[in-house]
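Ticket #4471: structure output looks truncated?

Reporter: J.K.
Steps to reproduce: submitted the chain below (374 residues) through the standard prediction queue, then opened the result file.
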Amino acid sequence: MKFDYQKLAQDGSARRGKITTAHGEIDTPAFMPVGTAATVKGMRPEQVADTGAQILLGNTYHLMLRPGAERVAALGGLHKFMNWDKPILTDSGGFQVMSLSKLRKITEKGVTFQSHIDGSRHELSPERSIEIQNLLDADITMSFDECTPFPSDEKTAAESMRLSMRWAKRSRDAFIKRDGYGIFGIVQGSIYPDLRAESADALRQIGFDGYAIGGLAVGEGQELMFQTLETVIPHLPEDKPRYLMGVGKPADIVGAVLRGVDMFDCVLPTRSGRTAQAFTRRGTLNFMNARHADDPRPLDAECTCYTCRNYSRAYINHLLKCDEMLGPMLLTQHNLHYYQELMAGLRGAIEAGRLNDFALEFHNQYLTGDIEEL
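Returned output as attached by the reporter:
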């Protein structure tokens, strides 16, 4: 089975497509729940699939430290290990290594760092990152990069980006091509248009199966993020998928789809579920608020998820106040369903040629707040 992207419809810059991988198809625009340590926190794989998710994200850095890539490979690969038979994308480890600024050293060869778990020293190079992702059996491998911190001056951003481009070439060379598997390059360059264009053009010259936009959602704000997307997208191939890494809030996703992005991942729906936050069509609700204690309504009357079909706001508020683990689990399940329902709505709107109307309705409804008619 060939790794392939097919564009099925277009509305403005937005695309409705399908990615074919060794472990199944992915309808785009798509949102990938984050399974950092081979699990989506608080959810069984069957529950994640029931929300509509077709692909998960695994984390190279965390899995290389625990339980170890070689161990996962010996146990049959990540799909079998975590009981997920659909596609998996693994990040390269670059973002996590960036966050270890006091524990790591970057050279042309790669990164030497100390584990945040036990302080042991490790090396991660482009070649080793690709090897780990191959051992994990990722359907989509990400090239190894340095995620440029924000803010960075232009000189620092340029040096970081060009290092990532040299690493991208080494990543591509190290990737073992096989049917149904692909590797994505990652565009860097912070918020500087010329650097972003240079990076995108360099990746096209190398040649990848898909193109990611990294180094955003790190504090630059939505306006700058959208401006950067408008700079980058015209430099990316029309016949390859585009992935905006680490994004994001529902409004960020809608705006990025309007600008031509196909794939997203973010910890927000799961992390919010663990901190009493729920996403609804009318905005975000905090379920620790006392006003929910006597409310018999579901989270969202229009939602068809398991949580909304079976439990009241009052019960969820009670669970959270009692520190019962079921509360975060029910909110996480709802949030993931909400995100997948949003993606399905975006896909349908693109197919119907009414994405602008969909986006306007989304924003208007989101701004109305949690009114009584919900």
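Triage note (M.O.): checked the attachment and the full token line is present. Residues 297 and 372 are 10 Å apart (CA to CA).
Status: closed, working as intended.
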